[in-house]
Amino acid sequence: MLSDAEWQAIALSLKIAGSAVGWILIPGIAVAWLLARHEFRGKSLLDGLLHLPLVLPPVVVGYLLLLSLGRHGWLGHWLYQWLGVSLPFTWQGAAVAGGVMAFPLLVRAVRLSLEAVDPKLEAAAGTLGANRWRVLFTITLPLAVPGLLTGAVLAFARALSEFGATITFASNIPGQTRTLPLALYTLIQTPGKESAAARLCVLSIVIAMLSLLASEWLARRARQRLQERDR
Amino acid sequence: MRESAESIASAALDCRLRKQLGDFSLDISLSVPSSGVTALFGQSGSGKTSLLRLIAGLDRPDEGHVRLGSRTLTDRAKRLHVPIHRRRLGVVFQEARLFPHYRVRGNLTYGMAPSARRRFDDLVSLLGIESLLDRLPGTLSGGEARRVAIGRALLTEPELLLMDEPLTGLDGDRKQELLNYLVRMTRDIDIPIVYVSHDTAEIAAIADHLALVEKGRLIAHGPLDDLMMRLDLTDRLGGFDAATRLLARLDKHDDHYALSHVVLNDGQRLKVPRIDRPLGAQVRLRIGVRDVALAREMPSGTSYRNGLRASIDAIEPSPQSPSTVEVLLRLGDQRLRARLTREACDEMQLREGQSVIALIRSVAFDAQSR
């Protein structure tokens, strides 16, 4: 039903988007917690910086990634020299680009759900002898699970649809960095491939819908467990 | 302010706290004896909950200290503030604050001290929550949730238990039921308890000591029975419905009339509506000052079931009404207060030192009096 190239693009897209969410999940929760539960100097600056990928043209983000993480960039240079890792033009690089673009969405969703956790419950846990880490892992995070799931799925969908930053930073290499949107773009550019492009378009819609449904289902299950049930 | 010598000598908690909260200033020195229930009593907005939060470490004072036994928990001068989780205080909040994602059992064991494990079953049955262990908090009634919250706090083996109006928001029957559990619990555990309340009947049932808080200041402090005898505090401690308490021992149940017979420590007997407690148990009887009548001799042919021999300690004008007087009575080492019309007092020619009979209707002991 699907061609090898189509399968390849789907598998690659899922792998890249999954990795993107994987690497931003813990930093995203940490930053969201910092913003939700702490007051510190430069908080609004951090908040603004976090939202940059949402408002900047993705190409600019890709270019900045290239400048900093490229082999001659200040961070990329260090990565290459000490770890032998080079990110541009690799699927890992595409995952980095997708993660950076998805980061603000993840942080927003997680922050909202952390802010919705009643601080009175956290104080009660404190009076029962729990230090702040135990409070975080046994009270705050479990109660924020529905929001965490929503945030993760949003981030996944955003990474899946990433185009501008990816093509700038990781290029469009078949089997390496050619994800669904890039494959679709390539087909549109090629005369006579309109029907193949339409197939990929439908495929993209199906995957997006499935991930939304999955998130709804997971969030509902998590909420049900937490919800106060009427007798 | 009057403080009794014994409460200072064996203080478990000693604090001096000052905090400015907007227009409201709190400035209170308080010592809590190492046994029994100390009620923090005052109107809402008097600062009793703020005081509780400062003791618990949920807020920091502008100035002052909190000491528990030999441990200093807060000392502004030394910039010391022991975090909540290392204070070893049990706190029962107004709302139960159970964790919705843990079952009742999980809530109970959340902060359980290893040494409390063997007490788990006893405490659970004392609080009557055996059948709730596998339920989620969202399915509990208000009274059940409070009981779980109390058990959860006690299982951390705290050195002091702080309770912030644990009966608030419960309806009459549930309230009475939980109050009975609380009274039973406070007899069974031997840690000091600070109990915040604005309900005089509740306090009469549960407290041994009283700290009266008004507008952020402590205006009286001492054994509750002493404070209940003070005329200057009548307005605050119930006013029209002011009461005093007698301590008695359950001696006999009369099943036919559904009465219980109790004995005071001077040997005099009283009949009260049946109290469902084992014989020999100590009970506190709350007696409204308006429910006591006086006679020179034991009358015959009256419906009064109880006549207690007492002597008059003092006769004072009632602070609230020009038509009544307050008669302070002594029965052995216990005291009782009666409110009479001034006219009756003059006609009977009552005087200090005189022996009288205090008549108390048996029906005057309501369920709250336990």
What do these coordinates show?
The complex is a heterodimer of chains A (231) and B (370). Chain A is an all-alpha fold and 231 residues long. Chain A has a single domain (4-226), classed as MetI-like (MetI-like fold, Orthogonal Bundle), CATH 1.10.3720. Chain A is built from 11 helices and no strands. Chain A has helices spanning 4-37, 43-55, 58-69, 74-83, 91-115, 119-127, 132-143, 145-160, 164-169, 180-189, 194-226. The radius of gyration of chain A is 20 Å and the shape is globular. The termini of chain A are far apart. The mean pLDDT of chain A is 89. With 370 residues, chain B is an alpha+beta fold. Chain B has 2 domains: 5-242, Rossmann fold (3-Layer(aba) Sandwich), CATH 3.40.50.300; 244-369, OB fold (Dihydrolipoamide Acetyltransferase, E2P) (Beta Barrel), CATH 2.40.50. Chain B contains 9 helices and 20 strands. Chain B has helices spanning 5-9, 48-56, 104-109, 120-126, 142-154, 172-188, 200-206, 224-228, 342-347, and strands at residues 11-21, 24-33, 37-41, 63-68, 71-75, 80-81, 89-92, 160-164, 193-197, 209-214, 217-223, 243-254, 259-264, 269-273, 282-288, 292-295, 306-317, 324-331, 334-341, 355-360. In chain B, strands 7-8-9-3-10-11 form a 6-stranded mixed β-sheet, sandwiched between helices. A 5-stranded antiparallel β-sheet of chain B has the order 2-1-4-5-6. Chain B is globular and about 65 Å long. Residues 1-9 of chain B have low confidence and may be disordered. Chains A and B meet through helix 6 and helix 7 of A and strand 7 of B. Chain A: It holds the Pfam family BPD_transp_1. Chain A: It is a multi-pass membrane protein. Chain A: Residues 10-214 form the ABC transmembrane type-1 domain. Chain A: It is found in: Cell inner membrane; Cell membrane. Chain A: This is Molybdenum transport system permease.
